[in-house]
Amino acid sequence: MEKNPSRLIEGTWFVIGITLFYLVMVLDLSTLHVGVPQSRPLIAVSVTVFVASILLLPFFYKRRKRYLDGVRQHMEGNHWVHWQYAISEWRKYEEVEWKRSRTAAFMLPFGVVAVALLLASLSGWSWNRIQLFIPMFVAFALFVGVLMYAFGRLALFRNSQTPGEVYIGKDGIYFNSKDTVWNITRANVGEVKIPKEIPITLQVRVISGAIGFGTSEVRIPIPVGREQEAREIVGKFSAKN
Fold first, then answer.
1. pTM, two decimal places
2. How far apart are CA 61 and CA 191, in angstroms?
3. b/e for 144-159, b at 16 or more Cβ within 10 A?
4. Top-confidence residue, 131 or 51
5. Which of 115, 173, 202, 212 could disulfide-pair with 181, CB 3.0 to 4.6 Å?
């Protein structure tokens, strides 16, 4: 079974954003005839990293598809429950999850700008020079943030049209081809609970790395009438851990 390359994909997109912003900034400086000879090695590295990241993305997405196909194939024959959803409850879940994540989606470009400012400082640009471009930095972050928000709304509309499904078993969770937990050496199931909220969800904490290097949370909607199954799943994961 291949390892989940989702973190590689996220990291690659982040690198693309940083290097693209840095190169745009360099282009603006050159247009204004501000010399940046000390930055040429960093420019060369940025161009190389940007091109390499673009070329690697299709490979990572193919790996992710193979990974998810393998997980689903395994889970079809090794699961405790297989939940499918009515279109109304699935749309309600998608809307709630979008409200939870939209702030982070909008603020991410500002993180990219902060890293780009650090790179500019390390490349030898003075604060006075960088200060001239702060309005451009803010405009860039706002533009990308609005763009990500718009794409998020589009994804919400698309995802809401077809109800998802989930397989849950002792080996892990396959959730609608987008959130996957797999009990392998570097990914383990942590706390599993059903918080008091609407819509009711099964929340699974995922621990990545042998010493818990990173954690994430998978929120799975519980279909109407399957609440007892969800409580049994919490018990099974608790006994397993």
1. 0.67
2. 29
3. bbeebeeeeeeebeeb
4. 51
5. 173
